[in-house]
Amino acid sequence: MSSEIQLSLFNEESNFDQRELIPTDAKIPVPPGTYTNMNELAQHCNQCQRCELGSTRTHAVVGRGHLKAPIMVVGEAPGQNEDETGLPFVGRSGQLLDKILASVGLNTEHDVYIANINKCRPPNNRVPTPHEMAACLPYLLEQIRLVDPKIILLTGATSVKGLTGEKRAITKIRGQWIEWEGRLCMPIFHPSYLLRNPSKEQGSPKWLMWQDIQTVRAKYDEIRQSDGI
């Protein structure tokens, strides 16, 4: 696509359907404010061909939960269950995530919105490539803008790296608050990691997750109190 078309992509006087052009090439930007609501974004994700994953998906997996949630959970990429249903975290990992949230009185009806770095399932559930993450990141940034969460939980190292660029191992940074774009982010273990490490002994991943989610709940309560909610 020519640089002239790219420059005029969001010119209101343009004679072509601007948004139809956004997904066709990862080089075409998706500026902040492109979408007015999540349904609009979801329709675009299901048409998207910004990377090769668009050719192998069953459904784009955009998100689930409260559209103005104060807490947003960001995962890595859809698995088979998610690809089939079009919803994030609906398999065993998702069931565990819901239980973790519920353990401190949080749920997707009132407090939480769940999304992923990538909206399409990588073949064989492999880790998304840097190109795939970069091509899909603008959609996540638009989701964050639309939901406007106070707290973002980043599940696993890929999620942390995909949004913040932080490359340290999740074991080194989990449970620590990171400020990103004026928002509080906390890296936490991915639920699938907890499924592979079922011990609940002190110092185990599940034990550490319990500490982390209590810290998140305390910060949430602190924010609500300061906002007079």
TrEMBL record:
One of its Pfam families is: UDG
EC number(s) per UniProt? 3.2.2.27
Key words, A-Z: 4Fe-4S, DNA damage, DNA repair, Hydrolase, Iron, Iron-sulfur, Metal-binding
Reaction(s) catalyzed by this protein? Hydrolyzes single-stranded DNA or mismatched double-stranded DNA and polynucleotides, releasing free uracil
Domain Uracil-DNA glycosylase-like stretches? 62-214
What InterPro entries is this protein classified in? UDG_Type-4/5, Ura-DNA_glyco_family4, Uracil-DNA_glycosylase-like, Uracil-DNA_glycosylase-like_sf
Enzyme category, top tier: hydrolase
Q: Which Gene3D superfamilies does the record cross-reference, listed alphabetically?
A: Uracil-DNA glycosylase-like domain (3.40.470.10)
Q: Which family does it belong to?
A: Belongs to the uracil-DNA glycosylase (UDG) superfamily. Type 4 (UDGa) family.
Check the record and name the PANTHER family matching this protein.
Answer: TYPE-4 URACIL-DNA GLYCOSYLASE, TYPE-5 URACIL-DNA GLYCOSYLASE
Q: What is this protein called?
A: Type-4 uracil-DNA glycosylase
The species this protein belongs to is Anabaena subtropica FACHB-260
Source organism phylogeny: Bacteria, Bacillati, Cyanobacteriota, Cyanophyceae, Nostocales
